[in-house]
Amino acid sequence: MKEFTRKTERIYSGRVLDLERLDVELEDGRPALREIVRHRGAVGVLPRLPDGSFIFVRQFRKAVEAEAIEVCAGLLEPGEPPESAARRELREETGLAADRLVFLGRLWSSPGYTDEAVDVYFAECREKQSARELDEDERVETLRLTEREVEDLIRRNEIHDAKTVAVWHLYRAKVAG
In angstroms, rounded to a whole number, what is the distance separating the alpha carbons of residues 47 and 95? Predict the structure, then answer.
């Protein structure tokens, strides 16, 4: 199953994403239209402190008009390796530094319409924190949660962010397992 791109038209180019319209040909020769959101990529980090608690962030997400509980996350800078971005985002959003960073995997957020890939990590961190370095337009609250509290939030569907749920399950399968 492969599609051949006949024509690509950039509809929009923005700070975070681009939107393209693709005219494609299906395997059987029929034409089809695809609208693709192009994204430079992102990282997500699940930090754990020495006492076994985890740090999450809560912030307002305009797209869904609600606060969301998430793992620490952010965009890749152009040319930035994902591991460097993970360490940077961890420091910026939480003030934490990772003593050990474990790659958990790569997630495609919604491959039906976007090429966004999110590289996700588990971080063992020191208790000592430095000052957070939030972007000017970021409003982020940190939450310190036990493993049981995280499990309860997921079970009660109070964590809606797919990346966060996936990171938690990858952590349970690959690190805690």
Answer: 11
Give yes or no for a contact between 103 and 83, defined as CB atoms under 8 angstroms apart.
yes
Which domains are delineated in the chain? 4-38 (no CATH), 40-176 (3.90.79.10)
Catalytic machinery residues: 136
pLDDT tens, residue by residue, 130-170 = 665 656 776 778 999 999 999 999 999 999 999 999 999 99
Q: Using alpha carbons only, how large is the chain's radius of gyration in Å?
A: 18
List pLDDT tens digits, range 58-69: 999 999 999 999
**Strand spans (E) along 26-170:** 31-39, 42-48, 54-61, 66-70, 72-75, 98-108, 117-125, 141-145
d(CA 86, CA 72): 9
Of 3, 41, 42, 38, the C-alpha closest to 20 is: 38
What is the per-residue pLDDT for 106?
A: 98
Are the C-beta atoms of 61 and 140 separated by less than 8 Å? Answer: no
Could you report the per-residue pLDDT of 91-113, keeping only the tens digit for each?
888 999 999 999 999 999 999 99
Contact call for residues 94 and 47 (beta carbons, < 8 A): yes
